[in-house]
Amino acid sequence: MKVIIHGGFFSESDQSHEVKTAKQESLKEIVKRTFEYLQYHSAFDTAAFAVSLLEDDELYNAGTGSQIQSDGVIRMSAAIMDGKTEKMSGVINIQDVKNPIFVAKALMKEDDRVLGGSGAKKYATEHGFENFSTEIPKRREEYQAKLNNGGKGTVGCVVIDKNGKLAVATSTGGKGFEIPGRISDSATVAGNYANAFCAVSCTGVGEDIVSNATAAKIVTRVTDGMSLQNAFEKTFEELKTIDGFAGAIAIDKDGNSYHQDSYPTMVFASFDGENLETFN
Ligand code: ASP
Fold first, then answer.
1. Where are the catalytic residues (predicted)?
2. What are phi and psi of 42, to 5 degrees?
3. pTM of full prediction above 0.90
């Protein structure tokens, strides 16, 4: 059993030492809580659980603390994929729900599994998800000052459970200041993908991740026999042709995990019950 989580990018230039330490502590705490949860739950349930904890922590650009779009509105996206069933479900540009990942998870039982905008919100309301503002004062101040955090958010989790099943979940508040209607990679197969061989969650500039098809490519390469490391190296090499900005975490069916970013530093933590690894 193993859990690896990420909390997007950390930039030395626009974030303080205190924020860095807070993110390290928060990731360690969340990865440990998630590992405990994994003892009694499937990879699928655990991936959603981890992402909901990250969404609830306002340090990250997902759920509470999401960035604000150019028209002053927060729109969030999230997706989950079960490596066992090879099915994905998600929400794109949903407003005013506490945990977009739980709405994405609820959609797994539907025939229509990815909903956008007002349809996603209507579904959430009809299925008991209360109206909840995910705005925090800091994001509004950044928005008023027209500060753009530049696409360094997003949270994600990849996990392998005691039965060797894999799952991935990813959630984002987007890039910040985007044109209303813009679609993030996070609820697409480029940003969030898993099967029986490998699970990958991405962060970075959604347009680059979609152009590179990052998560789907890494998973396909591992499925076809490449090692995790080789699959990452080839995929990130290809990202260079578009000067792409991305980071990803992954786990394979043998419990190997890997992470790579094109521009340091993606913030992440992993835990297998013994070894706790985190970013520096
Ligand atoms: N990938 C997200 C997006 O483009 C943002 C991020 O990961 O920082 O919407």
1. 154
2. -75, 165
3. yes
